[in-house]
Amino acid sequence: MGRYLAIRIGRAALTIVLVVTFAFVVLRLSGDPALMILGPEAPPEVLAAFRKAWGLDDPIWFQYLDYFGAIAKGELGRSMRDGRPAIELVLERMPPRVTSNSSGCGQSNSSTREAGQGTVSLSLFPGQELQRLL
Predict the structure, then answer these.
(1) N or C: which end of the chain has fewer CB within 10 A?
(2) How far apart are CA 52 and CA 50, in angstroms?
(3) What does pTM read for this prediction?
(4) By the 8 A CB rule, do 71 and 22 touch?
């Protein structure tokens, strides 16, 4: 059992590292964030100040470690457009049922109850086609 859990946790950790790395690479390949936000007509000193303020003038490996460390701490950063915390922007766009704790608990309880009822009904009627499919 311990070996199984270790394998599952290791695979989950590897998946998280790969997803974070992929997101970092895609964001960096999309172009210079300073040029994308300020536009190509922005003066060079404004672009340099923006890059310094957001840490874009640091070496790429340092940016990656900083990015990964912030995500590991649960800090999604701030929006480059309006300066608000990114988590606020994410929560604004989520449906209310996902962000509400009370409805989430009720839904998980009903799902657990329904799964239990399905298991009992399958055990009461052995040999049925549905049971063979599962």
Answers:
(1) N
(2) 5
(3) 0.55
(4) no
Asked whether 103 and 97 are in contact (CB, 8 A), the reply is yes
DSSP string, 4-26: HHHHHHHHHHHHHHHHHHHHHHH
Residues 6+ away with beta carbon under 8 Å from 36: 30
The pLDDT value given to residue 7: 94
- Stretch among 8-17, 23-32, 120-129 having the lowest mean pLDDT: 120-129
The set of residues, in sequence order, having a beta carbon less than 8 Å from that of 103 and lying 6+ positions away, is 97
Nearest-angstrom CA–CA distance, 71 and 18: 13
Structure tokens, 81 = 């457009």
Q: Tens of pLDDT along 88-105?
A: 888 888 877 655 555 555
For the chain, the helix, strand and coil percentages under 3-state DSSP, each to the nearest 5: 75, 0, 25
Length of the chain, in residues: 134
Q: For residue 85, give the DSSP letter.
A: B
